Amino acid sequence: MYTNWLNDILRCPETHETLIFDGNSYASDGKVYKVENDILSIVFPDQLAGNDSKYNKFYNILAPLYDLNERVMGKLLVGVDMVKGRKQIVSFLGLKPGMRILEVSPGPGVFQKYLRNDIGEKGELVALDLSMGMLCQCQKRNKKLNVQLIHGNAQYLPFADNSFDALYHFGGINLFNDPQKAISEFIRIVKKGGIVSWGDEGFSENYRNVPKKKLMLKINPGFGKPRPVVPDSVYDVKENEVYDGLAYLIVANKK
To answer: Is the pLDDT reported for residue 162 higher than 90?
Structure first.
């Protein structure tokens, strides 16, 4: 189950009130959140709408094949080595042994072995996703990595302020209902000076392959979305081109 440390920082995603654990569920002010298959479901709002609802259904269906599809299609369509790209992305984060990190939207857990390698056995790795299907894939893939999984909404994170040394999100923010709110939440739960990072699809200025641009825009609507604005509440902002200019990764520190 969850460590004492994680239990201490869990909060109601609606009110941010402290949650009380009774051995089977977490409760606060009449709201009860249950644990099933070792995953706490703490999604808010109860009824999803807009893109959150649309893409959650899509990712739940695609979850068992997501990694294979991404690796194969990435190689065939645009010539990108996804595994090499994933290693590069994590290398940009600047993680250190012993850190407590939250991964938001881990999908099937393809980054988690690299994150665990950087923070070491003594580090704490928590992963939160809106798709229960994706979290189940994380369980199957990374049983030995000691990842604590939470079923929740990135725009309403169920954690206390200043709880993590680092937050990492890659892939998905372009399709959130409110990307800016998500980034605000990312920053809220990270300690002062901690690492805040997010990224997604997005052509770099140097990407000149027009036919592939048109193809990717048809396949993935995320490529057509504007990038979220970087808030003033972070500093030392670095913007990295990843996946051969088909995506970006912002890495910054909380003021």
So the answer is: yes
Question: For the whole model, what pTM was predicted?
Answer: 0.95
Within the chain, where are the H helices?
4-9, 50-62, 66-78, 82-91, 112-119, 132-141, 179-188, 210-219
User: How many CB atoms within 10 Å of residue 206?
Assistant: 8
d(CA 32, CA 57): 24
CATH top-level class of 34-254: alpha beta
Listed as own residue / partner, the contacts of 239-243 with beta carbons closer than 8 Å and 24 or more positions apart are 240/89, 240/92, 240/199, 241/204, 241/206, 242/85, 242/88, 242/89, 242/92, 242/199, 243/74, 243/80, 243/82, 243/85
In angstroms, the CA 115 to CA 197 distance is 13
212 with 218: CB under 8 angstroms? no
Question: What are 33-83's pLDDT values in tens digits?
Answer: 999 889 999 999 999 999 999 999 999 998 998 888 888 877 877 788 999
Contact yes or no for 143/25 (Cβ under 8 A): no
**Per-residue pLDDT, 23:** 84
For residues 233 and 179, give the distance between their C-alpha atoms in angstroms, rounded to a whole number: 16
Q: Where are the domains of the chain?
A: 34-254
CA gap 179, 98 in Å, rounded: 29
pLDDT for res 94: 97
Closest C-alpha among 158, 145, 67, 36 to residue 104: 158
What is the C-alpha R_g of the chain? 18
Task: Supply the DSSP string of 222-255, one letter for each residue.
Answer: GGGSPPPPPPTTEEEEEEEEEGGGTEEEEEEEE-
Mean pLDDT, rounded, for 168-187: 96
Report phi then psi at 126, rounded to 5.
-115, 140
